[in-house]
Amino acid sequence: MIYVVANWKCNPTNTKEAKKITAGILAAVKSARGTETVICPPFCYLDEVLEAAKKTVKLGAQDCFWEESGAYTGELSAWQLKDVKCQYVIIGHSERRKYFGETNEQTNKKIKAAVSAGLTPILCVGETREERVGGSITQPIEAQIKEGLAGIDVFQTAVIVAYEPVWAIGTGQACSVEEANYVRQFVNNILGDKVAVLYGGSVNADNAVSYLKDAKFNGLLVGGVSLKPDEFSKLLTNVSEKPKNKV
Predict the structure, then answer these.
(1) In the chain, what are the domain boundaries?
(2) Is 150 within 8 Å of 190 (Cβ atoms)?
């Protein structure tokens, strides 16, 4: 099974466009084989996507809070997400870390909450350009994994890890397949082969297959292209299993 996770981030700006993007993705998914497509829209469009999806795609969220309920203005808990039919939740995205100061400890609390609520967390890990230039690629990733998943038995719990080199996100400068494969192996050495590892960071229809076949990732976390139904359709077509010829 290949995971294709669409992260819309803070887009689009209106319901009409959200419905249009969803319709385009659903049309593409109909012909895709061997893939699990997950749409992670902004919270305000969760119902819109769910209503249109009709079990064709899975619903995911872009973040959650670690408490079940309480006086936490502006937050949504994992249990609330579960109640509106979310099955996945992205946690620890580099933009959460950069703009909101999210720490590995907070990420860990969110992951534990997601697991308790019955959601599958997608833990994002990756190095910044400064860390990369300084020769420290795996060190921050190891810390993000070990601290983010502290207290989580990955052999008994459904957890996904997404490697997104921070310097590649939204820049059009995707990580080379060889370097991405090196990190994927590093992650698997820590967690074992049971944990699915995705690649994200300037993923498009042209390079998607290489990350799956050559770098052996289990799927993709797609940002900008997921907002463009035509391009996302091409990506899904390229990565989906081709039907076998009848003998």
Answers:
(1) 2-239
(2) no
Q: Strand pairing partners for 196?
A: 160
Q: What's the whole-model pTM score?
A: 0.95
Of the residues 75, 93, 105, 147, only one is catalytic, namely: 93
DSSP H helices in 59-174:
78-83, 94-100, 104-117, 129-133, 138-148
pLDDT tens per residue, range 9-26: 999 999 999 999 999 999
Closest Cα partner for 111 from 123, 102, 101? 123
Find how far residue 66's CA is from the centre of its chain.
19
Known catalytic residue at 75: no
Tens of pLDDT, residue by residue over 189-210, are 999 999 999 999 999 999 999 9
Question: Considering 102, 164, 179, 241, which one is annotated as catalytic?
Answer: 164
pLDDT tens readout for residues 60-117 = 999 999 999 999 999 999 999 999 999 999 999 999 999 999 999 999 999 999 999 9
The answer to whether 51 is a known catalytic residue is no
Reduced to 3 states (helix: H, G, I; strand: E, B; else coil), residue 60 is strand
- Contact criterion met (CB below 8 Å) for 140 and 131: yes
- Identify the CATH number of the domain defined by range 2-239: 3.20.20.70
What is d(CA 107, CA 207) in angstroms, rounded to the nearest whole number?
29
Furthest-apart CA atoms within the chain: distance in Å: 63
